[in-house]
């Protein structure tokens, strides 16, 4: 099903090394819209990353740094990048070879459109 | 808060679910309302009330599903001001059980649903319950069994 978020996720998944892009509810961790390659467990990424982002935001606020804008998790075989609004977050799952700088710019730009 | 179980085969899966999903309360029960294990309640009367209400809600929503779609609804989620409840049926060892989970902003519906799938898999992989435990919970001994289960949970057996 196509939603108004389809252009956002479809633009993100065109980057080399991106395996999936999702718009996720920040409070419930459920997928609002996703464009995923076969084999990516979107529901698990969505729920866990939204939880991580909520906690990162609380940590940032507690430290007096203000709202967090971008979260990147780097693992041995991949990365998860997240940027968000107050209600929705963009979650991008990618391989390590992805151009993080470019992805970050596009992710932050796309996140500005989120409620 | 202590996890307590009547049926030992549900202990490990229930503990893992509580730890992973970060829920405040979790109660696993038969659809009749007989408790198998619980985490989060300190008084037996609270467990009894929660089980009775959850059982009634599950029965009502299952019947609504049957009326509307020809099969019972799988789960129910309700959002309160600070807390949320999730009530879902679980098929394990050929019978349906009901899980009631209460959670706050530390968790989310997505996390509960995610770890519910793992909980189902762990329950199915656990050794099957003894034959006596598989007997219908709706019998003339219901009240006696209910009281015995609650006494076991709260160390009065």
Overall CATH architecture of chain B: 2-Layer Sandwich
Question: What structural category arises from helix and sheet content of chain A?
Answer: alpha+beta
Number of helices of chain B: 5
Radius of gyration of chain B, rounded? 15 Å
The first-to-last residue Cα distance of chain B is 20 Å
CATH topology of chain A: Beta-Lactamase
**Total strands of chain A:** 5
CATH architecture of chain A, please? 2-Layer Sandwich
What does this structure look like?
- The complex is a heterodimer of chains A (115) and B (157).
- Chain A has helices spanning 6-13, 42-62, 100-111, and strands at residues 18-25, 31-36, 70-75, 78-84, 88-94.
- Chain A is α+β, with helices and mostly antiparallel strands.
- Chain A has one domain: Beta-Lactamase, CATH 3.30.450.30.
- In chain A, β4 (78-84) and β5 form a beta hairpin.
- The mean pLDDT of chain A is 91.
- Chain B has a 6-stranded antiparallel β-sheet, with helices on both faces.
- The longest helix of chain B has 26 residues, at 44-69.
- The mean pLDDT of chain B is 87.
- Classes of the chains: A alpha+beta (115), B alpha+beta (157).
- Chains A and B meet through α2 of A and α3 of B.
Q: Layout of helices and strands, plus pairs?
A:
The complex is a heterodimer of chains A (115) and B (157).
Chain A: H1 6-13, E1 18-25, E2 31-36, H2 42-62, E3 70-75, E4 78-84, E5 88-94, H3 100-111
Antiparallel strand pairs in A: 1-2, 1-5, 3-4, 4-5
Chain B: E1 3-5, H1 11-21, E2 25-29, E3 35-39, H2 44-69, E4 75-79, E5 84-92, E6 95-103, H3 109-125, H4 131-134, H5 142-153
Antiparallel strand pairs in B: 1-3, 2-3, 2-6, 4-5, 5-6
């Amino acid at each position: 099903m196509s939603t108004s978020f389809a252009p956002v996720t479809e633009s993100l998944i065109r980057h080399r090394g991106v395996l999936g892009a999702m718009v996720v509810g920040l409070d419930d961790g459920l997928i609002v819209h996703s464009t995923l390659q076969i084999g990516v467990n979107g529901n698990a990424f969505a729920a866990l990353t939204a939880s991580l982002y909520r906690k990162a935001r609380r940590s940032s606020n507690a430290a007096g740094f203000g709202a967090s804008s971008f979260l990147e998790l780097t693992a041995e075989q991949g990365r998860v990048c997240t940027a968000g609004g107050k209600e929705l977050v963009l979650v991008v799952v990618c391989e390590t070879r992805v151009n993080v700088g470019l992805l970050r710019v596009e992710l932050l730009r796309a996140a500005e459109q989120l409620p | 808060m202590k996890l307590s179980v009547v049926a030992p085969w549900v202990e490990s899966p229930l503990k893992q679910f509580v730890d992973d999903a970060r829920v405040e309360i979790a109660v696993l029960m038969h659809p009749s309302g007989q408790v198998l294990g619980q985490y989060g309640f300190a008084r037996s009367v609270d467990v009894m009330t929660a089980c009775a209400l959850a059982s009634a809600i599950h029965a009502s929503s299952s019947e609504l599903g049957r009326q509307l779609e020809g099969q019972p609804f799988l789960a129910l989620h309700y959002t309160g001001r600070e807390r949320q409840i999730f009530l879902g049926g679980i098929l394990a060892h050929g019978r349906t059980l009901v899980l009631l989970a209460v959670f706050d902003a530390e968790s989310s519906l997505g996390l509960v649903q995610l770890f519910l799938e793992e909980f189902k898999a762990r329950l199915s992989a656990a050794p099957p319950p003894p034959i006596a435990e598989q007997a219908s919970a709706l019998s003339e001994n219901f009240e006696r069994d209910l009281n015995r289960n609650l006494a076991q949970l709260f160390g009065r057996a």
